[in-house]
Queue: 3 jobs
Job 1
Amino acid sequence: MNTAAYLIERLLQFGRAHGLIEELDTYVARNTLLDLFHLEEPYEGIPTEPVPQLPTELLNALLDCAGEAGLYDAEIYALRVNFEARLMGALMPRESEVAARFTELYEAKGPRAATEYFYRLCIASNYIRTAEIAKNIKWDYPCKYGNLEITINLTKPEKDPKTIAMERLLPAASYPKCMLCPENIGYAGRVNFPARQYHRIVPVTLAGERWFLQYSPYVYYNEHCIVFGEKHEPMQIDHLTFQRLLDFVELFPHYTCGSNADLPIVGGSILSHNHFQGGNYRFPMQNAKTVSSYASAEFPTLTIESIAWPIAALRVTGKDKNELIRFADKVLADWKTYSDPAADILAFTEEDGNKVPHNTITPIAHFEADKGYIMDLVPRNNRTSAEFPEGIFHPHREIHHIKKENIGLIEVMGLAILPSRLKQQCEEIANVLTGSASAEAVAVAAPEHADWIAYLINRYGTALTAHEAEAALHREIGAKFEVCLEHTGVFKQTPEGVQAYDRFLAALGCTKL
């Protein structure tokens, strides 16, 4: 029996059972897979094993067969993943079929049925990498602001030296322009760019323009989606941003949707393509309590509030979408030029004779049936200084051993995405706290944690149980993330910071109630 041919039949069974292909599509899918494996004929017979819930085990076995046959360089993980996309691409419905089915379900059964179908499709195709995502470490951290959610992200593997060497030899490429462009659908990939034969997107109309909805392959939370423009245009926070966000949550009221800021340091990892992120998830920030309420004669129908959150945010609620957009426009326009030197806020600095802007906003929208549209507007400032060269309102250096990357939209909302290195490092530090490892040896292996290890020993000693050590590290990492968010907040949660916040709101024409 040819193992690959047998596994192909099992994969075809999986595709039919999970709605990737219909019965008649099996002929085409089988022949495509036989061609990929250079096989002249299929397995004769019907596999009797149960159809799995996920394709991971079947794919891994097929990829092992392909690697042994020299169909890709088995030493390079990126090429293994790209070959997997080719396999699952043979089982995928066409882009137009996915879009048509999504629209059909939206119109017949509503937005939740449409997104559930699309999400299940992305899981069944292994585009959403469920097995890898399950490895992530996650816990809650209760603090004075409510609950923060902490994750150590283990889904994206480190690049090996051979991959890095191959990348250096590749010629410069400009297609696709970035990983968010619609041209990614069906793309074969290369060692430094993922294959996307199993990638599908669905069109949505926002502010009268065609945008697209897709899911993240490495979801950080339930139904983690990305909404991106059809054109390859840079991130920009403006009037259309607010209109698009509110249009999206009107179309999908069970989703939250927000935008990363459009400036370096306070923006996301992709500033070259205008996009939002959202999902069927209630983030910790959405549970933040009201601190103060404000009234605006210009916007009498809106509820305007400050919230108890480490990153100061202005929460505005109303049932008139256009009124919210007008208010958000005013906040953005006023904030872009607002300076308060007493709070270390400067809207502009001079650099080589040019006026450099520093103020922008991270906007987040969701919908609640009893309240209407809710938008959190988070003031951001990306100015640096001699004391804080990475950013005044950026994680400061005492936090960098835990988190030094930009604080983007997801983390603003209270969900920490921490680097994978922390898993192994925390296991070693836990051994110090239980007395089974030398503090000096661990500090030498991870010098960035040396001061932290000394603090932990001073606080907890070295006689904890394994469970107590893990719990202590979870608390301390949560506390670090809380401070990290406080560093990021433009208006601090101090008496002076609250006064500075009130000065800005007064400049907006808002009166504290």
Job 2
Amino acid sequence: MSKRSGYRKLELLHDASLWQQHCQARSGLSIYLSDKDKRADAALSRYRDYLGHEFERVFIDCRDSLHADAIAALCGTVTAGGLLSILLPEKPNAMSQRMEYFALKHWSNTVADLSPETSTESLPAGNKLKLTSEQSDILELVNETVSGAKSEPTTHIITAERGRGKSTLLGQALAHAKNKSSVIVTAPRKANAKVLLQQAPQAKFVAWDKLLEQPDAPDKQLIIDEAAGLPLWATERLCQKFTPWLLATTVAGYEGCGRGFAVHFTDWAKKNLAGVAIHQLTQPMRWPVNDPLEQWLTETFLLDEKRPLASSTEAITGTFIKHASELEESLLQQCFQLLLNAHYQSSPNDLNLLLTEPLHKVAYSLEQGRVTAVAWLMAEGPIDAPLKHDIKQGRRRPKGNLLPQAIGYFLQQEWAFDLSWLRVARIAVPADKRRRKYASALLAEISTWAGDNHFQVLGTSFAWSSELDAFWQNNNYAPWRISSRIDSVSARPAAIYAYPLSTNNSQQFQRLSAWGQQQLQWLSKDIAALASTENLSEIRALIIDAYTRHIIPFDAAHFALAQWLYWQHPDHTLTSLICKPDITLKQLGQVWGGLSQRQANEKLCKDIRALR
């Protein structure tokens, strides 16, 4: 393949007709994503399919709405001298204006036409590839693990920004391994490991979910490419089933906060694995150093989490609640970096939402211009009458309004649709400020502000843990619903906690608080906790009715069914099964002679209807 050199370029367009002309003239070494144009290669939601590929031109149609995750991901597929072309929304917003502002900053002169001395070369089809000095040094270290030079196994964690050659390094390490048959490769998708597999074509790739189903095999070495794209619990489980050798991940740039993953996983690895070595690649391979397109992406979407943060120009102290578009750049950077690091599933689209959604706010506390706590707030509800009926019946689940929809649908509490909610979607404090009541102080200020602005309920939703339960309950938030389904990403149940600000629905609030507390007891103490649930009959009757009419799923009705059978049919054979918090439809199907989950659900509904 021929060499490609030069800085990469950016094209931001508002004119749809001009955009069409550019797209029609594109070459075969390009990719075009659009939700509106049938001639496009794929819809925007399919951007992950192209991670690990390389293109000279990338065209992204964002005329309806900006897709920040797709932009950040596909920017990394543009090779040296290439072009990223984006059709912006017809009506400008804070995010599109931000994109244009930083484009002017990085292409203000003739930098887009400069061709630096440094050139990059597209990945050759063969296995021979000149590695950077960084890659060569790390390759020497990682191959000691499988050559027997080291007395104990070492897990190598390799982090880098996009285009630094992580996958190439993994492929070269595997190509140099003496016993390739003992190595298994996995990734979120096989396409993510394309470069790795090009370097080591004899590699054995197995999808990660299939690997989880296999028996433990500590004699097998494991390589995980783009590890941040896997659920954290799955990565940990894979490292227990096999001997982890190499894990690589992008630290920023698209879905999932890679640096957050690296922090969480590295902490876990140091506690649970025999040896851990951490490496970082910094030198780009697909484009020259100081590439303006990479700089534009990093600044526009605030992806550089290691960048030193400046204090606010106003060195003030206090607590403030504003829309993100109103914040000066230094404050926006401080707030977003904290929010990004607080949640390993963060993505560039979070910044887009904060800047463009009018019902989202940022609450933050300052000490001499430095952010000491930050929260992402979302206004939710009320929901209009025609829509709320469809939601309660399970016919609609529109985007947004998470709390009123969850309480109204899963718990069948129609009054929840009529309230004004303020959701604390995320809250974070700097590492050196934790366990010093900064978050609690911010929540107290949010409560006061919410009351002054006529919100009726404060709420939050999170992956449940005993530590988070203690934090929220210490701040007067009570559990209202704990899902019986384990989330595939966090490996924990989703929880909703609420703090009523109004006395108008006090009876309903008290019932749901009692419901949530008893459910927590049931989940931890099993059947014994059901002895305290006799007074919850009103809520459970609504839930059981919705379940038997196929409105809500089994996991949403499980706690109600357990209560009802415990009180109404204590000696029935169903009772001993359903009262177990961890029983699943799959297990019920096995008890009932090998029924499928669907068949088990139908049989359970029929049996409950007969008993009622």
Job 3
Amino acid sequence: MKKVGYFIGGCAAIVLLLSGCGKKESAENSGNLKANMAAKQVVNWSETEDLTTLDPSKLTQPIDITMVGNTNEGLFRLGKNHKLLPGIATKMSESSNGKVYTFNLRKNAKWSNGDPVTAHDFEYSWKRTINPKTASQYGYIFDGIKNANKIQANKAKPSALGVKALSDNKLQVTLERPIPYFKLLMAFPLFFPQNQKAVEKYGKAYGTSSSKMVYDGPFKMNGWTGTNEKWTLTANKNYWDKKHVYLAKINDQVVKDPSTMYNMYQGNQLDVATLSGSQVKNELKNKDMHLLKDSRIFYLEFNQRTRPAFKNKALRQAFSYAMDRKSFTKNVLADGSVPAQGFVTQGLANNPKTGEDFTKEAKQGNTGLEYNPTKAKAKYKQALKELNKKSLHLEVLCGDSTAAKHSAAYVQGQLEKILPNLKIDVSSVPLKALIQRQTHHQFDFFVSNWGADYSDPYTFLQVLQSNNTFNEGGWTNKGYDKLVKQSASTDATNPNKRWQDMIDASRVIMSDQGVAPLYQATIPQMRNPKVKGIVYNSAGLSFNLKGMYVSK
């Protein structure tokens, strides 16, 4: 990408010129690539959880984000190491004050129904997502775009959002303040365009099955009814960069049990399989094995909204001190995952001045991450006294995947072993029921997780703000809210002050035990060596399948 000086409306601007294709390849390299490709370009893929929606406005789960990310496209795409790649935008200009962005869109982008992809599709999509009637859990991510927060609070109409189609091929976005990570957001599926004609045609059924959707990305989806566990992705002939989509078809299916998935991989029924701990140990020397570092943190989330017991800080601390994170990751998970060092994942961001990893710096002086049965018992005894109770009987909520059940079982066993007069039941439910219970606060506590949407600590810290829809446990701390707000407003243009705000906020989480971080995940993946070109974005929640192909 090339930066050049430019003037728009009297304001100095930075302009990014984007290449016209997804990859710059010489004819020779392109020819060599195609010469090395197998005649049959079909991959058998697998998932560990159910697909719940294809509606960009209603995404919440990693699998949903991955599928939408490969069947649709926004202004940018995310490549290796979170590098921005060309999408629908061909040029982006930024005003000198960092508050106005203008995007020129390519004229050859089309939807799978033949309609052109225009700036109006982006404007419509964003305003639909931010509309309180849509009830998007992810609406908070528009924070900083002009009037976004007012709209979500019903203090302004969706039409007031700072996004405007200046023409069919020019989009303008106005911010309330500079957003340091704004460009990365433009590659996130919540900011993808939507075809208004399709949304209105399908109504409430929009995005609930593959046939109730149109696509502007590399692939189209077929065969997903909304409840089944098998579907296919096929090359989208209307995609603007279809010459760089090498696969003809991806057969995808949900396999929740790692043993079944492993056996299917061994039997050549799958080209990609996610393994569990014991399998990983046996395959570490196998050339097919890939340990993918994930920017995803797993943590205990306590329901402080409708379960008064968890408003007690000593109880939250007791649960955290009772967790033997090293033993859990080494002996139970055994898949390469590592003990959590805080609520923000390691390797996500570095101090702009010193280069120090955020998590390492924030951990200094932290409490609440150590395994200490003595402290756990003392805090639990204190909690029972303050709650005027002699015992507690609680339920830990989890999903129905093997990994989720194992995690919940460990938490149950560990808490009952360390804390006297405590009874824990495990409630394992399918993903849709899990989401329903979480969003309606129908749980005591659960093993929650959050993955980075972009490579900045704010993507984690924003989640635990008092008014965030994903803060399902309802933890509130005024000091925390103030620090996170400062990092995104008054200190947004001062990298060092912004960094310190986020460091301090991270420490508040642990000192008040807002949540109890458990571990940072690793994805152990077996992959057919003939499958090439997969790009995994650890801070983008997705596999970019666009350049994937099968070699001979």
